[in-house]
Design goal:
Length: 489
């Protein structure tokens, strides 16, 4: 791997032979066992499976397998395990830590053909679906049935629900509906030796032994492949509103959060924070008109959803009056229709995409005590400024240092857009940033996971005892180490 010269290909793994390919062609057909350079059809190019969403990582898989059933996944893994062929499970390939693409020549197992909704019960709200269903497709299906997927994120148009579970994605609705560890009720998965773990139950309560499915939630494809999930989906709220505020300082953002929790309480469904710099970059790169006049040091986006429009409007009006009168917010706007609703949300959801505009972005997804959340952004900017690497022209690698995130979950996205990835810049930031987080008892990965980028730094958030137990789990379920190697722990 060029990106990680320190990682060497594990020589225990076999290299792909004609015989292997013949087996997979026999099992899946050549359309679902796509070999690099063989297909003349451009849409069958395997390059997209080798490079990640950020275009930061590039693997060298020669074979992509697209199983259509759990049985096929089982046969694939059994064969790979017996033949020491390393694999990478891949969902929508929107992960942000280099976990979904090979490091060397691992076989990509794409879940895109396992895309059926299996069942939905509109009394219990429980959805059972294949892992390869795209999140937005699942949410649209639920919308037609007055329900909502309990997870939402900017990559919804491409990410898979199986990938979401494999990364334990947090996203924009966690504040209201909680984490996937609570909402996922069942998982069907295939272990590396081909065994099918049948835990696709649709029960809210089930205290019959160890809750093994939890290991797959956030397991990042290191102990098996998730083939289906059952998940509890809330009723869709008929009254949904969003407000976008400009604020004077991060302290004001904290006061706004407290006021929102107090006054909006059970209808509060999202609280997102963006600093003025992210909104300025969004405006400059996209050329769009921003919702508020002038510039503010901080912004927050508040969403409410409830079952009664009048009740919600009354609460929102009282809240708006309070935050304006007390000077908690400097300016604000409330969505009045669906178009405005989407426009306000895009001020938050559009950020991830535009930060890559200059060439690359160093991304840190961190959990910190709320009071300390933004101090890290200021400290990082100061550190990079002192080092002389931030500037407006091409002679400076760093464009800016910005912070935004799921403030309601105490989750900061510290982002450093750069003109090119630069080892010197990286050395200034890492491991300093992880030491900073460790001092505050935070987490070096709040929701994006470990993948290849965070693997070397797990020790900043987990002690040796914990890491030892995790390694035992990995060795127990994947003794040959074929599942997503070189990553995680
Ligand atoms: P992939 O990227 O394909 O894979 C991710 C990991 O899961 C890999 O390690 C892969 O091997 C493994 N995997 C995938 N499918 C399976 C499976 N079926 N079985 C076993 N392992 C599997 N994340 C958040 O938590 N919150 C956010 O708000 C958020 N916003 C985002 C916004 C944008 C614009 C983008 C690009 C990403 C965002 N993410 C966010 C990152 C997030 O992790 C992914 O978007 C998503 O959860 C990954 O799903 P995927 O199907 O793309 O998985």
């Amino acid at each position: 791997s060029k990106k990680y010269p320190e990682i060497k290909r594990d020589s225990r793994f076999a290299e792909l032979t004609k015989e292997h390919v013949t087996y997979f062609h026999g099992l899946l057909g050549s359309e679902s066992a796509v070999l690099d350079g063989v297909s003349k059809d451009a849409s069958e190019d395997i390059e997209p499976f080798n490079s990640d969403w950020m275009r930061k990582f590039r693997g060298h898989a020669k074979l992509v397998l697209k199983p259509s059933s759990t049985e096929e996944v089982s046969k694939i893994l059994k064969y790979c395990n017996e033949n020491m062929l390393a694999v990478v499970p891949q969902g929508g390939n929107t992960g942000l830590v280099g976990g979904s693409v090979p490091v060397f020549d691992e076989i990509v197992i794409s879940m895109q053909k396992m895309n059926k909704i299996r069942s939905f019960d509109d009394v219990s709200g429980i959805l059972v679906a294949d892992a390869g269903v795209i999140l937005e497709v699942a949410d649209n299906y639920l919308a037609e049935r007055n329900h909502i997927f309990p997870l939402d994120l900017g990559a919804k148009g491409s990410c898979h629900i199986g990938g979401n579970v494999a990364t334990n994605a947090g996203g924009l609705r966690l504040l209201r509906y909680g984490s996937l560890h609570g909402n996922v009720l069942g998982i069907e998965a295939v272990l590396p030796d081909g065994r099918i773990m049948n835990d696709l139950l649709t029960l809210r309560k089930n205290n019959t032994g160890y809750d093994l499915k939890q290991l797959f939630i956030g397991g990042e494809g290191t102990i098996g492949i998730i083939t289906a999930i059952s998940i509890l989906c809330p009723q869709r709220s008929p009254a949904v509103n969003v407000a976008y505020f400009g604020l004077e300082s991060f302290d004001h953002a904290q006061r706004a959060f407290r006021a929102a929790k107090t006054q909006l309480s059970e209808i509060l469904s999202a609280f997102e924070m963006m600093d003025g710099r992210t909104q300025k970059l969004l405006k400059n790169v996209s050329g769009r008109k921003m919702p508020l006049e002038g510039e503010h040091p901080f912004y927050c986006l508040i969403e409410t959803s409830g079952s009664n429009t009048d009740h919600d409007s009354e609460k929102l009006s009282a809240f708006l009056e309070h935050v304006m009168e007390t000077g908690i917010v400097s300016d604000g706007v409330l969505s009045e229709n669906q178009t405005q609703f989407a426009e306000l949300w895009s001020c938050r959801e559009g950020i991830t995409e535009i930060l890559g505009h200059w060439g690359g972005v160093y991304k840190y997804d961190l959990s910190l005590p709320i009071a300390d959340l933004y101090a890290l952004v200021d400290d990082t900017r100061e550190r990079l400024t002192k080092a002389g690497v931030i500037g407006d022209d091409d002679s400076h690698p760093v464009v800016d240092v910005v912070g935004y995130g799921h403030m309601g979950d105490a989750n900061l996205h510290l982002n450093i857009p750069v003109r090119k990835y630069d080892k010197e810049v990286e050395k200034i930031i890492e491991p300093w940033v992880y030491e900073w987080v460790q001092k505050k008892n935070g987490s070096i990965s709040a929701e994006h996971g470990l993948g290849v980028t965070k693997k070397p730094y797990v020790g900043y958030s987990r002690d040796d005892g914990m890491i030892g137990m995790m390694k035992q789990i990995k060795n127990l379920y994947d003794p040959n180490g074929i599942m997503n190697p070189y990553k995680y722990i």
